[in-house]
Amino acid sequence: MSLGSILRSSQDFTDRLCIVDKKSNLVKFGSVKTDEQRKLIDILDNSKRVAIVKARQLGATTAVRAHCFHEVYTSPKPVRSACISNKSRSAEALLRMDRTFYKNLPAKLKRPMSDDKAMGYSFGSTGAGALAFSAKSDSQDRGYTFSSIHMSEFAFFDHAAEVLASWEATADEGRIIIESTPNHYGDELHNIALDSMYNDSWKVIMLPWFTFPSYSKELPKGGFEMEDIEVDLMRECGLTPEQIFWRRCKIETMKSESLFRHEYPITIEEAYSLSEANFFTEEEVGQVQIIECKPSYKQMLSPINKESAYCIGVDTAGGVGKDYSVAMAVEKGSNIPAVCISSNSVPIRKFAEDIIRLSEELNGCLVFFEENNHGHALKEIFNSLGFNKYQAFQTTMRSKISLYDMLRSYIHEDLLPLLDRATFTEMRNLVRSEKGLAPEHPPNGHDDRVIALMLALRGLRDVSRPERFIDPRIRDLQRAKRPSQKLTNPLFNNRR
Q1: Within 10 Å of residue 339's Cβ, how many Cβ atoms?
Q2: Which of 71-75, 190-194, 278-282 has the lowest mean pLDDT?
C-alpha cells in the first residue's frame, strides 16, 4: 500500500498506530481493533456531532484519540484539535496517548514535532496540533477555531450543558465528539441521547459491554447451568457461554444486578434505568417490539394499508422550541402506529394543515385531539379550513388516568405489539407522580408521543371497520416468545 493511501485512510493509518494494552504491552492498534472500534472510526469520518454512551473500558477513547491524531497529523493545514476532560490531569493523559502514537510511528510515516508541552503539541511542517483543557477551566484560547473537539467522560462534567455550548462556539464547522460512561438519569449525555430520537443533530452511539473481547471468563470444569434470562441474553446478543459466565461472576462481585446494568449496560435505556420510579415495569415494556426509524418531521413507521381504518391522535404544543406537537396515526385492528408527525418548532397552522393532509391520505380518517390549551387553536384552524373530521377530547385528571389505564391494559393483553423507539422510550421513562395518580415525564423528558398514541387508541373506539379480523402481525407476535426489549442494541441493528 502506498504512503499516500495510508495517510488518506483513517482506518489504514490508525491500524499502524501503537497503543498500550491492559497488560502494559505495546501493540499495533490494528491487531486488536474491535469491529465496534472500526465502525466508530467510520462514523467519525462522516459525522460532525457524535455522542457515545459506553460501558466501562471498551476502547472508545482510544478510537477517538486515534481518529483525532490522524486528522491533525495528516492535515496540510494548521488545524487544531482540542481534548477536554473533567480534570487537567486526565486531559493530559489523553495527550499522552497521542504521544504514544507519535513516538512509535513507522519511520516512513514520521515527521518532526516542533512543539511538545504537557498541554499541547504541534508539527513544524504544518503547524497542526492538539491542545488539552480541563472542563473546569475558562482558559481556552478563543483565538483558535478547532477542527475537532473531543470531550471525554462528558457526563461527569460540572455544568456539562454550559461547557458544551461554550466549546461549540469554537468548533465552527468542525467535529465535536463526546463520549462517556453514564452518570445519572437526566445528565446532559442522556438528554442528548433522548433528543436524538426527535432530531438528527447528534449521531448517538451505544457501545454495550459485550463488544470488548476481554469481558469473558473461562468456564468452570464442571460447567454451569444458565438461567432463563442468561439463555435469552445469549441468543439475542450472540454471546458466548464464557461471556455469560463473566457477567454472572461480575454481578456476584458487585452484589447488585441493577448496578451491573448501570456500569455495564447493553442499551441506553438500561444505562439510565429508573426501575423503582418507573410507571411501567420492565416486564410490561418488555412485551413491546420496537420499530427503528430515523428522526424526521414526518416518519413512516409501518406500511399503510389502504383497506384499513385509522385514527390520528394529536397532542398540540406551542411550536416555540419546547414541548413537541405530535400527530400519530394508528391502524385499527392491529393498533400499530403507521405515521408520526412531530416537531417543537413548526407553527400550529402548518401543523394543522399537515394533519388534514395526513387524514386525507388515510381515507379521510378521524382526528382525535386534546382540546385543552393549544388544542383550542388547533380546533379554530380546523374550522377555518372547513375540516370537520375531528373529535375534541377534554383532558381532566380523571380522563388522563383512564387513558393510562387503557394503555396499561393494551400492553397486558398484547394489543400494543409495536412502537417506534422514541414513543417506546417516552413510555418507558414515565415516572410515578408524587400524588400517585397519572404518571409524569421526568425532568428534561417528554410524553407528547405517548399522549398522541393514547388519544389515537381512544379515538379508534369510535372508528368502525367493515369486518372484524386479527391482524397477522399480532397473531405471529403472540405466538412467538418475545425477548425483553432491554436486550436490543440501538446502534448496530444487525446484531439482532
Answers
A1: 20
A2: 278-282
The number of folded domains in the chain is 3
Please tell me the distance from the alpha carbon of residue 238 to that of residue 487, in angstroms, as a whole number: 11
Q: How many CA atoms lie within 13 A of 358 on its CB side?
A: 29
Residue 400 maps to a domain: yes
| SS3 at position 20 | strand
315 & 458 share domain = yes
Q: What is the pLDDT of residue 24?
A: 87
Residues 202 and 230 in one domain: no
Q: What are phi and psi of 19, to 5 degrees?
A: -130, 160
Neighbouring CB atoms inside 10 A of 45's CB total 14
Sequence-separated contacts (24+) of 468-475 with Cβ below 8 Å: 468/333, 469/333, 470/333, 471/331, 471/333, 471/334, 471/336, 473/334, 473/336, 473/417, 473/418, 474/334, 474/335, 474/414, 474/415, 474/417
Mean pLDDT of the chain, nearest integer: 86
How far, in Å, are 8, 187, 196, 250 from residue 428 at the CA level? 44, 17, 16, 26
Over 90: is that where the pLDDT of 185 sits? no
462, 421: one domain: yes
Confirm whether 178 is domain-assigned. Answer: yes
Instruction: Give the β-pairing of 325-331 and 337-343.
Output: antiparallel
Q: Are residues 342 and 442 in the same domain?
A: yes
Same domain, 241 and 313: no
Q: Are residues 250 and 177 in the same domain?
A: no
Q: Which CATH number fits the domain that encloses residue 343? A: 3.30.420.240
- For 43, 197, 288, 439, 493, the CA distances from 421, given in Å and listed in that order, are 21, 7, 10, 19, 13
Q: Residue 26 pairs with which residues in a beta bridge?
A: 20
pLDDT digits (tens, 9 = 90+) for 126-138: 889 999 999 987 5
CA distance to 278, 424, 444, 490, per residue, from 430 (Å) = 6, 10, 12, 20
Q: Which domain holds residue 252?
A: 216-263
Q: Domain for residue 276, yes or no?
A: no
pLDDT tens digit sequence for 400-420: 888 998 998 898 888 888 999
Q: Domain end: 211, 229, 252, which one?
A: 211
311 falls within a domain: yes
pLDDT at 321: 58
- Of 355, 352, 325, which is closest to residue 339 (Cα–Cα)? 355
pLDDT of residue 274: 59
Do residue 300 and residue 165 come from a single domain? no
Does the structure show a pLDDT above 50 at 310? Answer: yes
Q: Bridge-partner residues for 268, per DSSP?
A: none
Are both 316 and 463 inside the same structural domain?
yes
pLDDT per position as a tens digit, 219-275: 998 888 999 989 989 998 999 999 999 999 999 999 888 788 888 989 888 888 755
87: domain CATH number is: 3.40.50.300
Instruction: Tell me the C-alpha distance between 292 and 302, whole Å.
Output: 10
State pLDDT tens for residues 54-66: 988 788 999 999 9
